[in-house]
Amino acid sequence: MPAVTQDEVFSALKQCYDPEIPVNIVDLGLIYGVRFEPIADAQEKEQQDVTVDMTLTAQGCPAHVMIGEQVKSRLEQLPGIRTAKVNVVWNPPWTPDRISPEARKQLGIE
Fold first, then answer.
1. 83: domain CATH number?
2. 47 backbone φψ class: left, alpha, beta (φ>0; ψ -120 to 50)
3. In terms of residue numbers, what domain contains 56?
4. pLDDT tens digits, 65-93
């Protein structure tokens, strides 16, 4: 089984939503980074761990735990991912400038 790619991770994350905004977290610009870590265990050489750095639209977002769990669960469903870790970061702060053009149209911003 080939290693999971960053594109596959982003595709999976496009199925995760903030429950208050009808746009996926990738198009909202909430994903800041994805890191893969190969597993040294010979029996699990086809597996890897993934860490996602993401932010939220506001520090007081009441759904932050649910969104983080959704991201972790979705990534751990991908063949080749053993464990997913989610780091919520606040720097740089999220701004609406991070929203994709497609999401802007969906939200009626442009």
1. 3.30.300.130
2. beta
3. 6-94
4. 899 999 999 999 999 999 999 999 999 99
